[in-house]
Amino acid sequence: MAGAPLSQPTGMRAWLLSAEPHSRWQARLGRLYLGWRSFTTNPLAVLGLSIVLLLLFVAIFADFIAPYSPISGGDLRTQRLLPPSETYWLGTDDQARDIFSRIVYGSRITLFVIVLVSIIATPIGLLVGTVSGYLGGWVDTVLMRITDIFLAFPRLVLALAFVAALGPGIENAVIAIAITSWPPYARIARAETLMIRNSDFIAAVKLQGASTPRIILRHIVPLCLSSLIVRVTLDMAGIILTAAGLGFLGLGAQPPAPEWGAMVATGRNYLIDQWWVAAMPGIAIFVVSLGFNLLGDGLRDVLDPKAAK
């Protein structure tokens, strides 16, 4: 008796997995679908994505999730430094403010820092790296030596120097973190560019009369994006920790803003008897950083062909 025929994909799945796509759009969607299937086989990556999506959800709907105001507190005589309870899920701080509500609203500040730093630092690193790798010569030497100078200092120390010069505040902290975040992206983009600048398709584009800016922006930059996306995602945990470090030292978001690092700094004065004041925002920092690390590992397995086994 002949064996049962193998089931074949049907409907939309068959269209996505077609070996002969009829359009570029179909081919891109097919690759995206295959990447998603590969991503979902990694449970830790899915966990990281879930944490990041939860952060987005909490930040967007903070007004509906938080039961109390993150700024104003209750009665200092009766509601100050209360332990976790049914009324205050994570306890209250030294100003009788609900810690849970402050953590919920603090997710907006964390997301604000992550997004702005990524928007500022990624294009700078990508542009410096691709220009340096493609042009070579003295341009490469100058740009890479500048990059080496930034890489010679620990990120937090360099960010502290810039914030000290610019002044405390969340906007200046974002600028300082972005200034210290672009060098690794430039290194990665340069390495990718060196691998492809002498490729046959680049030579063909040159023969067609394409200018150097067009070659870099239209043909080299897209090929560097996948590796850069992975690195940016992995770096988001470092961005969160740097922002929390600046907030802990009083150079990030200023009181009474519910920034997680500043909340930890406030809670250190009560660490022995009222441990929840510092522990709860510290746990939030840990969980979100872990989520981005797990997500970055999963994206590396999908997007980086050199990491494939």
What does the secondary structure layout of this molecule look like, with pairings?
Layout: H1 11-16, H2 24-40, H3 43-60, H4 62-65, H5 99-135, H6 137-151, H7 155-166, H8 170-196, H9 200-207, H10 212-248, H11 260-267, H12 276-303
Helix pairs in contact: 2-12, 3-5, 3-12, 5-6, 5-8, 5-10, 6-8, 7-8, 8-10, 10-11, 10-12, 11-12
What does this structure look like?
The chain has 309 residues and is an all-alpha fold. Helices cover 70% and strands 0% of the residues. Helix 10 packs parallel to helix 11. The longest helix is centred in the middle third of the chain and has 37 residues, at 99-135. It is flat, with a radius of gyration of 24 Å. 35% of the residues are buried. Mean pLDDT is 86; it is low at 1-6.
